Amino acid sequence: MDPLVIAGKAYRSRLLVGTGKYQDFEQTRAAVEASGAEIVTVAIRRTNIGQTAGEPSLLEALPPSRYTILPNTAGCYTADDAVRTLRLARELLDGHDLVKLEVLGDPHTLYPNVVETLAAAETLIKEGFKVMVYTSDDPIIAKRLEEIGCVAVMPLASLIGSGMGILNPWNLRIIIENAQVPVLVDAGVGTASDAAIAMELGCDGILMNTAIAAANDPVLMASAMKKAVQAGREAYLAGRMPKKLYSASPSSPSAGVIGSAARN
Predict the structure, then answer these.
(1) Distance set, CA 241 to CA 115, 228, 229, 236, 238 (Å)
(2) When you count CB atoms within 10 A of the terminal residue's CB, does the N or C end of the chain come out lower?
(3) CA dist., res. 167 & res. 163, Å (int)
(4) In angstroms, what CA-CA distances link 135 with 12, 84, 202?
């Protein structure tokens, strides 16, 4: 499959996965391996990557030598909190500058606060961070985030953890058609068919966590998602046939069909 390029680096996998909600680090490791993901997100406010001495670190299960660790600001509700969190992540990860920004609007829907997101993105970009940003599916906001320097725009398909799939494919298509940076669906994917549809729309990739971690068999679901993302990308590149209510032309050629001469 053609590579996904983010901030100048190429990745073979277009599936990015989160590391929360698993039973333990061992299940996390197994699911990530089955997904084929090369980029894994880490909620700095919820997961130990070295800030809590004496406790198991996620980096032991998912070493940075093998994976691109993508610190995120899950649980942040203001621009200031998000900026502080990612500054800490950069210190913990020895200057790592690729980050995922999300600033939430409320704890019930986890819908993004785009005003605070824009403010945080501007600050982080000025400080040299390469910002991948979670946002609403508003095409105007998505374009603005690209214009201020975000390296990838990540609109939701539906609410975080909802598993509702893609509720507004039309807005996603507008965002994709107008973007000059990668567009990755972030949030709302529930099963493999959702992932395939997102990729068929032209998304450059997908980030998911709950769809895998909350499955009855997370490792098997991770494998299914890997295949769905690959199939969806290939279908997008191939270009689907037009939709028609019916077709007067048979799919097989009629010339030379036995009995055709008699009918003519």
Answers:
(1) 41, 19, 20, 11, 9
(2) C
(3) 11
(4) 24, 19, 18
Residue (of 170, 221, 177, 178) closest to 202 by Cα position: 177
| pTM, to two decimals | 0.88
3-state secondary structure of 88: helix
Instruction: Tell me the pLDDT of the chain averaged across its residues.
Output: 90
- CA distances 43 to 115, 128, 249, Å, are 21, 20, 54
CA atoms within 13 A on the CB side of 88: 18
- CA–CA separation, 262 and 155 (whole Å): 60
Catalytic residue among 9, 21, 100, 130: 100
Alpha helices in the chain (DSSP H): 25-35, 58-61, 79-92, 114-126, 139-147, 169-178, 192-200, 210-213, 218-238, 260-263
CB 242 within 8 A of CB 47: no
Average pLDDT over residues 228-251: 87
The 3-state DSSP class for residue 161 equals coil
Confidence band, pLDDT 50/70/90 cuts, at residue 175: very high
Would you state the structure tokens that stand for residue 209, as one six-digit string? Answer: 């966590």
Q: The tokens 């606060």 sit on which residue?
A: 113
| Residue 100 bears catalytic tag | yes
